[in-house]
Amino acid sequence: MAAEIVIAVSISFLFLLLSHWYRNRNTLITNWPLVGMMPALLRNSGRALEFFTFDVLRRCGGTFEFKGPLFPSFDFLLTSDSDNINHIMSKNFANYEKGSEFREIFEPFGEGIFTLDADRWKTQRKIMQALMRNSKFQSFRDKVVWKKLENGLIPIFKHVATMAIEVNLEDVFQRFDYDNMSLFALGFDPNSLTVEFPAIPSKEAFADIEEALLYRHFFPKCVWKLQNWLQIGEEKKLIQGWKILDDFVYNCIKSRREKFKNKGAQFEEEEFDLLTSFLVEDQGESGAFEQSDKFVRDTAVNLMLAGIDSVSGGLSWFFWVVATNPSVESKIVEEIKRNSPFCKDKNMIYLSEQELNRFTYLHAVFCETLRLHPPIPANHKTVVQPDMLPSGHKVDQGSRILISIYSMGRMEEIWGKDCLEFKPERWISDKGDIVYVPSHKFPAFNSGPRTCLGKDMSFLQMKTVAIALLKNYKVEVVQGHVVVPRESITLHMKNGLKVRIKKRSYV
Hints:
By secondary structure, this protein is α+β, with helices and mostly antiparallel strands. It contains 21 helices and ten strands.
């Protein structure tokens, strides 16, 4: 009797699965009972960006409703529709927040400009705006970048070329970025950018945290919460990385307090970083620095998070593009010849912001690189009140939206039938100027009120580095080395960028 019941239940369950499959046979992803579309997502977790782009969004008009497991709910709306992005990021901005669930996932980064919403986000943005516009910070920023270029990047390129060895160029640029952002935010130089390529615990902690956060995106909260409680798997790495990061940042805050107390105004003139700006403010009426070390820690970490991968990611993908497109490289080198002033030091070209603006083709190459390889490949939003998107999709309160910035660069509706081609010329008008593309179509630096405050600074840094290096060196990708995106919250390369570097005849 028991065996007959088991057989009957099994047959009924099998019939349920088959009938459900039959009803959903024409959908892009099968929506199974209980588990929803999770099997397809897990099966493609190693190629999620390509899966979302080519298997889903390009086949359904740019917006897709993903159904997760029944318990717990894992539903979200996936979109690359530029009209939807404009609506979400600009026209109805207040109705789409990061949300409490996003802050819970990104809890190691605390409460800063990257994670906050509403009035607290506005406060953080005002702090960052004041810093970016401060002439003392701008002077300090330029000095830091030039010093790292002159004493870090160029010596490494020279060493690799002289020794005729291979190097992971992505790692080199990540070190350049990490040292710069540590100096901008904390006034501390980790000195990771040397020919010895030292292991820097705080830098590695950042990378471990990022990997764990990607895991949190792919699994239900109950799963990673349990792992965190048991301190196993990716959550164990996150806990360890979080402690290392905190120790590093809090030690920098303590050191900065003591240094400022001893040197005062002289210190302010020499090194005007984020922490120094807080200390200076503390001497005024508002006393912002007194809000707590935790407030300062979160603000500094969010500044580092915003900048650490933007420049290094842009440079890494740029040099891969240049190395694999000889015609693009030739045009850039010719532009450098035309616009470079005579300089006694052939390794360095000191160019002002106005002089950098003459490099139209170089700017177009960076725009095209960021179109296809955005540093942050996706953006997350939570719906505050029920709404109707321009695509006709209804979203309820609490609904989650995933904006695929990576996919947007590959949509014919936005860029035309040649969207998969690398064409810097699409960014140059008939008059020779850079073509304006609204940020809701090109959100490499976000869009709307949350547009990245460091966008112009990033372009200046990338162009400065590219000119100095391409003027003197030729980069060649190691034969057989495969470059593909790595699944991460930032667009890294799965296998790095292994290259050889050769000295170029003086341009």
